[in-house]
């Protein structure tokens, strides 16, 4: 058996087409959505992600607002930039690129973002709204994962999902999304304290690998026909590597490649959160 590829780039192109039309409609009403990024330091990986986000904005017609700060900035200086974007009417949503240099307080920075401008959906107020089932910008990577599964008609309701990783950007919030009544999956969140990772993964109809450990999920762990989403990214001597070993696609029914899977959708839903916020401001939605 060779797995069906869950094509993140083709799916991203569909989302961009929809967003382009919605941005044009907003501009007719005199509103231009604007995405801000705050990047601290010169990590090449983070700089590449931020560049990608701004080139996506150009494709869809969203204004880009970039704040690049030196690695040795103080917490006060970082917070002054956050306050500036909170007050800037051109910026309808923004992100603080993670991770921040170690001397800065990541949680304090995230909490200072105006929850209404939280394009990542990672502000505690918005995570709390998600827990309560209230409307909020959704975390982009989990939203991308659910969209990709639906797009390829992978059954979610009643499925057993094993998530590898309990991080704030992927593992923890994907558990929240997939256990909503609208998804109805049963989720096991695995982490470094999990006694037998292989046994947990082997029971799963859907596996979401978000640990950041190259090749952690191997073919022998996969139930034949399962859907496997490769989300984790590591920079190794031989380039970018996902969490899923190549031979998994000989056992799985569906595989999202890495690159070319969930990554492009993370970026698409970042823009989508910004457009949705602008639509609220324009009175085009509730
Ligand atoms: N493709 C995309 O669009 C995106 C990819 N990413 C990538 O996804 C990955 C996860 O990111 P994030 O959610 O921030 O999580 P973190 O990087 O903060 O945490 C990683 C998690 O993986 C767990 N883990 C690490 N090693 C193992 C192991 N051997 N067995 C089981 N669990 C393990 C850790 O467990 P413990 O808690 O016990 O330490 C932790 O919960 C990263 O590689 C990140 O770069 C992130 C965002 C978007
Ligand atoms: N505040 C914040 N929000 C994030 O969402 C966030 C973050 N910080 N820090 C880092 C991680 C990582 N991340 C990725 C986004 C896109 C790709 C992506 O598009 N990857 C391409 C390949 C690389 C490329 O083409 O640029 C792909 O998978 O095909 C990957 C990883 C978001 N993150
Ligand atoms: Mg990390």
Automatic annotation (TrEMBL):
Its EC number is 1.5.1.5, 3.5.4.9. NADP(+) binds at residues 165-167, 233. Residues 139-280 form the Tetrahydrofolate dehydrogenase/cyclohydrolase NAD(P)-binding domain. Residues 6-120 form the Tetrahydrofolate dehydrogenase/cyclohydrolase catalytic domain. Keywords: Amino-acid biosynthesis, Histidine biosynthesis, Hydrolase, Methionine biosynthesis, Multifunctional enzyme, NADP, One-carbon metabolism, Oxidoreductase, Purine biosynthesis. It catalyses: (6R)-5,10-methylene-5,6,7,8-tetrahydrofolate + NADP(+) = (6R)-5,10-methenyltetrahydrofolate + NADPH; (6R)-5,10-methenyltetrahydrofolate + H2O = (6R)-10-formyltetrahydrofolate + H(+). It comes from the Bacteria. Catalyzes the oxidation of 5,10-methylenetetrahydrofolate to 5,10-methenyltetrahydrofolate and then the hydrolysis of 5,10-methenyltetrahydrofolate to 10-formyltetrahydrofolate. HAMAP family: THF_DHG_CYH. Homodimer. Belongs to the tetrahydrofolate dehydrogenase/cyclohydrolase family. This is Bifunctional protein FolD. It comes from Rhodococcus parequi.
């Amino acid at each position: 058996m060779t797995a069906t590829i869950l094509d993140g780039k083709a799916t991203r192109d569909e989302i961009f087409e929809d967003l382009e039309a919605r941005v044009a409609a907003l501009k007719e009403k005199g509103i231009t959505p604007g995405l801000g990024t705050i990047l601290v330091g010169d990590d090449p990986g983070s700089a590449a992600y931020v560049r990608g986000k701004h080139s996506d904005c150009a494709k869809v017609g969203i204004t880009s607002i970039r704040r690049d700060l030196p690695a040795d900035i103080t917490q006060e200086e970082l917070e002054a930039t956050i306050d500036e974007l909170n007050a800037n009417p051109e910026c309808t949503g923004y992100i603080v690129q993670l991770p921040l240099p170690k001397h800065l307080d990541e949680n304090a920075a995230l909490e200072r973002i105006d929850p209404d401008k939280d394009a990542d959906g990672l502000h505690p107020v918005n995570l709390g709204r998600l827990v309560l089932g209230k409307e909020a910008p959704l975390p982009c990577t989990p939203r991308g994962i659910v969209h990709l599964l639906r797009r390829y008609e992978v059954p979610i309701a009643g499925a057993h999902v094993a998530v590898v990783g309990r991080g704030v950007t992927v593992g923890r919030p994907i558990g929240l999304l997939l256990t909503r009544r609208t998804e109805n999956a049963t989720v096991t969140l695995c982490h470094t304290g999990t006694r037998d990772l292989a046994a947990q993964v082997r029971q799963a109809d859907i596996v979401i690998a978000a640990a950041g450990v190259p090749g952690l999920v191997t073919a022998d762990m996969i139930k034949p026909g399962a859907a496997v989403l490769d989300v984790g990214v590591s920079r190794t001597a031989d380039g970018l590597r996902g969490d899923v070993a190549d031979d998994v696609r000989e056992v799985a029914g569906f595989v999202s490649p890495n690159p070319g899977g969930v990554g492009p959708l993370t970026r698409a839903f970042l823009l989508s959160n910004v457009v949705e916020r602008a639509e609220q401001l324009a009175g085009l939605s509730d």
